[in-house]
Description:
It comes from Callorhinchus milii. GO terms for molecular function: phosphatidylinositol-3,5-bisphosphate phosphatase activity; phosphatidylinositol-3-phosphate phosphatase activity. The protein folds into two domains: 91 residues, Roll (PH-domain like), CATH 2.30.29.30; 391 residues, no CATH class. Helices cover 40% and strands 14% of the residues. The protein has 24 helices and 18 strands. Helix 7 packs antiparallel against helix 8 and helix 10 packs parallel to helix 13. The longest helix has 38 residues. The radius of gyration is 37 Å and the shape is globular. 35% of the residues are buried.
Amino acid sequence: MKQVKFRDRFTNKKPAVGTLYLTATHLIYVEYSAELRKETWILHHHIAAIEKPALTAAGCPLLIHCKNFRVAHFVIPRERDCHDVYSSLLRLSQPVSYKELYAFSYNPKQNETNRGGGWKAIDLKEEFQHMGVPNDYWEQTDANEGYEICNTYPTLLYVPRGVSKSLIMGSSKFRSRARFPVLSYFFKENNAAICRCSQPLSGFSARCVEDEQMLQAISKANPGSPFMYVVDTRPKLNAMANRAAGKGYENEDNYSNIRFQFIGIENIHVMRNSLQKLLEVCELKAPSMSDFLTGLENSGWLRHIKAVIDAGVFIAKAVAEENASVLVHCSDGWDRTAQVCSLAGLLLDSYYRTIHGFMVLIEKDWISIGHKFSQRCGHLEGDPKEVSPVFTQFIEGVWHLMEQFPCAFEFNEKYLLEIHDHVFSCQFGNFIGNCRKERQDIKIQEKTHSLWPFLLEKQHLYQNPLYKASVTNVVLKPNTAPFNFKFWCSMYNRFDKGMHPKQSVLDCLLTSMKCNVELKGSVEDLNQVRASVLSKVTELEKSNLTDIMRGLLIHIAMFFCVQKRIQPDGSQSDIACVLSKKLTIQEASSQLPVLDTLQESGHGQQSLLANGAIEVTEDIADGDKERKSVTDSSFFKIQPTNCDSVLELDTCAQTDGEDHPTSQDTVVDN
């Protein structure tokens, strides 16, 4: 469609005019102007909602809201064309099966070996070994082999050493969705652990001996602490309401040596409504300061972010400072539990604050353990009440930590935004599906590509210029006072260019880093050339050309040193004295500072011509202050000299007003 207008929400500029293309995977707008050809690509899977406001004199408006918070406002000349685009986008943005997702048709021209290798970029078994597991307290269990006990858990699970399969099965029957307690993170400095599960099916009075024994085993796996925390991330009222449905929370009377703690993170429905209110504030065209701040406060968004970070801080502090193990759960253990466990791990372990380590963290605490990405991100047509910005809150929580600790993270905010985009893009298979079993059933690894190698290839774009690896191996202790939380403009208004500075500090620093790397590379190249030259000189010294090279160096020294270094009283300078003896080639070259400082002295220039000849131009001040140029642009033909010193060579080689005689003991010029 031609003559389509593209409006900018935050400027009064004349709308751009261009052509709108609709492909199987993207909506593409091409703007034609005198200066450049600008393209805007919108992936169908990024589209969250489409509006078709009333017809105007300028044409038919089409408003597209995206999951990565882009808002595109088009004006299409003909109403019929606008309706066709509207209907097509509704269908393309809401696929009904996984096979319709972009990842199953995306082909980056990799062979099967590269595809398989990409999925092996992260090995969670190696990650647990990095933590120090298995050990005397924790071991791998095969209880869930074939997803026998819990179909939303992976097969690779770690439990306290000595726990039997029957005990695991008994505990799983007492937990919602059979999600029994498993190890999430082991803090090897003091043997404290972070475990996760779902809420117990306790109702008002039910209990389970196997579940009580499981928690006792977790507590005993940390001999350095007499108790363990059980953290319920829900508000207490919500947890109590679940008791009426036969669920609820642990009764401290039935579990020995536990300390119970409610955190108070709201459910997915509250979070979804909060984000919607925040986006309404972001889309205000010209809000006053009062309107913006009031809208931001009424959305409650930053308050929810603070609650999530507070929970992570509490867990990290319990592990690192109180030496206590922690068991975390919410309702089903795949939303709020994932948020706080991953944030706690990020605070405790500097490895997760690296580019590769952050991938491992997401794989371990989100993808593998069963966060319902496809439902929460709305990948397929389904119940809109299941959609919620759970992962978005985690990403923003990480950004707030980066703001407080700018030197502690290897990556920058571009890395967070890139990952957030691909959670919704469905271009790669990592985030498709709701659990590992579901991904296995639809053959994700066989039919799609992994995101992680794609990010690793571009990791130079995600480097934090302020990162200091040498000082980051500490537990982070963020300040969660309200004044430390702020609106993330680069996330929610990223595509509104009029709101951002023309030149960002991050871009300037990244450019400086790139130049620094290039300069270091040049220095390394020069060092290699220098080493090669020194090697050649050493070889020449050992060859039969030694005397010739010595004569050449002494001849150069005579021109650059002796003629210029005679003191007013007629005595020799230090350089002349140093060279008043026969030197080896290396000794002579090392004793010639005049060669290095020639340009600084302003008395001469030396250049190496293309044919290998040495050109020497000397400025000699005589009594009449006349300038004399001595140039020899041809090859010097040097023979071994019998002169015992530079001064003698000077006498042999120079005769005022006379030609140099040709002999075996003198320098011959052609």
